[in-house]
Amino acid sequence: MMYAPVGFSEAEYPRVEYQRRQQFWDPIRLALFTLTIVAIIGIAIGIVTHFVVEDDKAFCYLASFKVTNIKYKENYGMKSSREFTERSHQIERMMSRIFRRSSGGGRFIKSHVIKLSPYEEGVNIFMVLMFRYPSSDSVERIRKIVERTLYQSLKINQFPLTISKPSFRLTPIDSRKMRNLLNSRCGIRMTLSNMPLPASSSTERIVQGRETAMDGEWPWQASLQLIGAGHQCGASLISNTWLLTAAHCFRKNKDPSQWIATFGTTITPPAIKRSVGKIIVHENYYRDTNDNDIALAQLTNRVEFSNVVQRVCLPDSSMKLPPKTSVFVTGFGSIVDDGPTQNKLRQARVETIGTDVCNRTDVYDGLITPGMLCAGFMEGKVDACKGDSGGPLVYDNRDIWYIVGIVSWGQSCALPKRPGVYTRVTKYRDWIASKTGI
Ligand code: ARG
Asked: Which residue intervals define the domain Peptidase S1 in the entry (predicted)?
């Protein structure tokens, strides 16, 4: 049965009301109403797009300016020197304070010192500044904003470095030029979209580590492979042609023509493949004690640096890491004692252990020489393992990565009181320079 309200028919519907309704929805009102709705929806979509899908792009500038209250030092000319690195960091920190504090703070991506050169009484600084703005924005407009922000900040804030305002120049550069400029510095990680990679989050082991999350996270990592036998060792890129690795990797075979090196986060497929032209094993490598477990391999053809292939910084021989410093080890090695090689690169966070502790009778009982460095945990669990040998132990100094160790040996893997033992790279800094000129 159909439902019909009792005692109500259309004829009885009050006329006046009916007319009022008709008037309310007259064509003009209807049009206005529709327009309003459309406008509201339009604005809402606009707002959402603005915040969510806005197409941001990196705007890069080369900045040059003079700092008048510091004196030029000889070592500023050497990018691997501590003086250059520390001064550059100071300038970069200052830039990030200036731009992060400003209203458009979220727009600042990073700054990077490229060169320090002498200028009268002071120092000339060349650096790259990177900002994130909608791709529709103009380079000129952003340049003005950046200049204004800097000038204002210099007026208000007290900084340890005095920038001469009239010397400040800002030149837009395209992202290719920027990449080339950034590539003039070692130890820098970038995402595929040219954004800097953040510091690594907490991780577990290679034995108990995790797969690396992103391409380009450890761009200096290489796999050294024997033709026909596959992955043998890890290695680290320290220039366009030189790899740093462990001497014991070449115990069985030191004929360069039998070796290849690959780069990228997987062994198959590799991002890049190169043949090896030269192998230099430390003259005083002793297989019985593992002392001086360091070697160099030179590629026959250079690799070009990119976001996925990059060189790691070599530390000054004077660099010291206190015990319990957080460092990362990476490799394609097994995740259990005597397990198979991993196709995907893995990483683990470990901590440096003082040689005094590592040489204790209940630990390695005096086997640790001055050329070795222990890292891991006394309770075990996290460690490098078989196949990680030759690979890097790296230290993150304000987003610049230094190779401080080379995976060398250990009693089994990840056992309590048996941490990983690494070649102490600082001790061989001069040896590396004498063989490679780096
Ligand atoms: N010697 C091993 C190799 O050839 C690496 C040993 C590292 N061991 C350790 N427990 N950290 O791959």
From this structure: 206-437
How many angstroms is it from 282 CA to the middle of ligand 1?
18
Distance 301 CA to ligand 1 centre (A): 29
- pLDDT, position 7: 40
Region label for 230, one of left (φ > 0), alpha (ψ between -120 and 50) or beta (otherwise): left
Side chain identity at residue 308, one-letter code: V
**Superfamily of chain region 56-182:** SEA domain (3.30.70.960)
As for ligand 1, residues whose beta carbon falls within 6 Å of it are 333, 383-389, 407, 409-410, 413, 420
CATH superfamily of the 221-299 domain: Trypsin-like serine proteases (2.40.10.10)
Atom number of ligand 1 nearest to Cα 376: 11
Q: Which of 112, 231, 248, 282 is catalytic?
A: 248
Catalytic-residue membership of 112: no
Residue 9 half-sphere exposure toward CB, CA atoms < 13 A? 3
Closest ligand 1 atom to 420 CA: 11
pLDDT mean by block of 10 residues, the chain; 438 residues: 38 50 72 82 69 77 96 89 88 92 80 93 94 92 93 91 94 87 84 63 56 84 98 98 98 98 96 98 98 98 93 92 97 93 96 98 98 98 96 91 97 97 98 96
- The reply to whether 80 belongs to the active site is no
Q: Where are the domains of the chain?
A: 56-182, 221-299
Please tell me the predicted confidence (pLDDT) of residue 175: 81
Residue 17 Cα to ligand 1 middle (Å): 90
Residue 370 three-state SS: coil
Q: What is the pTM of this model?
A: 0.79
Say if residues 395 and 404 touch (Cβ distance below 8 Å): yes
Q: Rounded to an integer, what distance in angstroms lies between the CA atom of residue 395 and that of residue 403?
A: 6
